[in-house]
Amino acid sequence: MSSLAEVARHAGVSKATASRALSGAAHVSEATRARVAASAAELGFVASTSAASLVTGRSRNVGVVTPFISRWFFGEVIEGVEEALIDAGYDLTLFRVQEDPDLRQRVFDYFLVRKRVDAVITVCVALSPEEISALAALGKPVVGIGGGIAGMSSIRIDDVAASRLATEHLLSLGHSHILHVGGDQEERMDFHVHAQRLAGFRQAMATAGHRPGDDFAAAEFTIAGGFSTGLRVLGNPTTRPSAIVAASDEIAIGVILAARQLGIQVPRDLSVVGIDDHDLAEMFGLTTVRQVPRAQGRDAVSMIMASINSGELTRRDLQLPLALRVRSSTSAPQHG
Amino acid sequence: MSSLAEVARHAGVSKATASRALSGAAHVSEATRARVAASAAELGFVASTSAASLVTGRSRNVGVVTPFISRWFFGEVIEGVEEALIDAGYDLTLFRVQEDPDLRQRVFDYFLVRKRVDAVITVCVALSPEEISALAALGKPVVGIGGGIAGMSSIRIDDVAASRLATEHLLSLGHSHILHVGGDQEERMDFHVHAQRLAGFRQAMATAGHRPGDDFAAAEFTIAGGFSTGLRVLGNPTTRPSAIVAASDEIAIGVILAARQLGIQVPRDLSVVGIDDHDLAEMFGLTTVRQVPRAQGRDAVSMIMASINSGELTRRDLQLPLALRVRSSTSAPQHG
DNA sequence: GTGAAAGCGCTAACAT
DNA sequence: ATGTTAGCGCTTTCAC
User: Which residue in A255, B29, B40, B317 has a CA-CA distance of 20 to 30 Å to A321?
Assistant: First the structure.
């Protein structure tokens, strides 16, 4: 816990020179730099972030705002962010926002402000106008992953296209009775995701000449959510669809488990496609539209670093590519 | 972003009084306190943590060191920590440590020090002696969840007892050919967990008069890990066990999926017990030894707050209770 | 109960 | 290339 002053004294230079030598910048002779570095190492010196932040106004710290931690998509994003951040020498402060409005307000009005984060990454959070203002008032780079934030940078996949791609695959196999199992609007995730995946599904169906009918069922974005909805929508043999487009792999896996529980063969009697590329997809032979949340996390950090380094808050929107990975969970329908 | 000075001026008091009024402590008249509070609210004042930290040496920030984020146990612990921390007005800075020794060293020698965290919580990380020294050198409260750290406070379940409980349940049903599917020693999780769960299993087996044989198979602590190990150990009908004690619910679920894939009826032909109480356990009717990682996270924070408030670094060890939740995944063996 | 003043450890002008 | 100086915004003696 030695101070810069001690390092300077030990190296026989002034605090200013020591600071310059250690920060890498400015005009310092190679000899001095080496000497200061040696002293710092010997004394185990690590600069106090509080002191540095106080004077520079920067904290080398990025806030990540997320509604979930252990769901696959969110965990992957956070890991991607963490990897990129540690490479850049930044810390990650985690803020979990839930439904409770009081807690949410505390995060936005108090925690984010006082921590003086240099930037904020939001992961699929549906923000209220007040929350957006609070974020904008920070005057710092903000990037929204998954769900964009009005007027701010974003990283996303084309959710409409993802869902359309999945649907078109099933249509091309000859399915006509297809159900979309997607996000419950009540979830505090960005509702655009839910709406857009449903829209992509309906677009593809409409283009193929199918009229919208009883084509949607809501599920929580988890395996358990897909399972319970799956039991419900697959329970009645007469109304059962021959194919399902699930809004996430977790839902898709839950649906497959429900089907098996009901004695329905996948893919013989039911074809399933998911959107995500979850680790478990392979185990179930699940056909997926591939998105890579980890890359989204890393890209968010790149965007932020670019913004910090340039000093500009220009808005950018990055849309990541999709790919359909066909596996054994889809096949042509048996009857018709 | 107004400063304390502005608040003080607005309220017609000195900076000192404003500071005292807002920090809640000290001798300030009720009238002044109210006036200062009103001014602060009106100006949207939030104290700068950098400035406060610089002078107090405390940062209202706790570091969480974990090898994983999206695995169920870890996610739950982190969520528990986060909940308790936000209640206490603290931030959570996340440090993910992986195998890469360079990255690990950076976290311990650089990140943890410079961030001036007030305390550290480690979640099931196997620490090297150097890493333990680095942590101890912080002079801050440290509590290890899951895997204890030599000489520091810990929160854990009795891993030996947990595993024994699970095994005894299967033994009491009449099983004799029981396999333990547990943690791979190569995993950078605290290896004590793996060793202890295996020890508990063998203790119970020995007590029941079974001699140690080919009784263990390693798996990654994930559903996919349990699945692939499950396929392997259940593949041969002649050597197949009639019951399995899985070191975690995720492994157990993977094993059940593998069994189903192989056409083995659970629980008719195979009984399975897991340790965790994962959300998905219910879906599989999985019998579990219940531990509550979320509670462990919260308790870790309580411990830390007690330590911070008392100013003492006394070591404490808390062991959380276990409960066997018998569900439909276990039954008496068919042959034997 | 309140104010004046010192100083936490660092960086950034400004001199030299 | 290096040193001097002046704060960053807060908390905390120490007076009153």
Answer: A255
